[in-house]
Amino acid sequence: MTMKNPLAKTAVLLAGMYVFLTWILPLFTAPLPASLIYLYLALTVAAAAIFYTMSGAGLDDFMGPIGRFLTGEGHAGATGTARLVVFALFPLLVGWQTYAKLAPSDMPPAENRTIHPAPPGEFVGLANPFPRTPGNIATGQGLYAAYCSPCHGGNFDGKGPASVGFNPPPANFSDPGTIAQLQESYLFWRIKKGGVGLPVEGMPWKSAMPRWEKELTDERIWKIIMGEYAGAGQSPRTWEEEE
Ligand code: HEC
After folding, report:
1. 117 alpha carbon to ligand 1 midpoint, in Å?
2. pLDDT tens, position by position, 25-67
3. How far apart are CA 213 and CA 81, in angstroms?
């Protein structure tokens, strides 16, 4: 079957352009932004329209099928049903596209977030001034249960009742990748200053970790740290281990 209909030819040309710009061109060079691809496709349609409408006969060949589709002329039986299906689906498609564009996404941005950025100098090397006694640990765990467990979980697993929906999620202290990697001074900084105290390399994700320096005294924070390690079954990283 040879393709005579200019509209069909334009459709094939468009599909070819789309495949070329979206999948073939990126094999050789940087991928094009979607907006540019749509611009090229729109220009292709415009060029085809100009080309086919230069003569009166060409105009009817090109626009005729579109007009007949819209008015329903000559669309009976199965083609008539197909026309109605297209009319029903088109608004849904536009609605879905609009929704997909506007709905907020929970995909992390392309930049890499540094999970453990370097703490400010005044926090480096601070040691917990309180002895690791059962009493202090119990005090810390009580405070942890009150202030931290809603997010970080009663089991120290980051799955507290308020944890759902935060991105990044509250840290899971029983995972060897969090507090077991860190010194107590580091936790002291993170607990005091929270998500808002993170330096730029800890962004661009918005951390829900509260800044506790107003609510909790230094003494309470140090004891919470103790209770946190004991409860999670981890021990802090120390200078000796690093050497
Ligand atoms: C509103 C929820 C919320 C509460 C309440 C909360 N945190 Fe967090 N916390 C987070 C989130 C989210 C993160 C992960 C993002 C980040 O590192 O800032 C986090 C991270 C941390 C980290 C960093 C762990 C790491 O591996 O870098 C520590 C330490 C921490 N929290 C301790 C605490 C302590 C102690 C309390 C209670 C005094 C507490 N948090 C209360 C949400 C919370």
Report:
1. 14
2. 888 887 788 888 889 999 998 988 888 777 666 777 777 878 8
3. 68
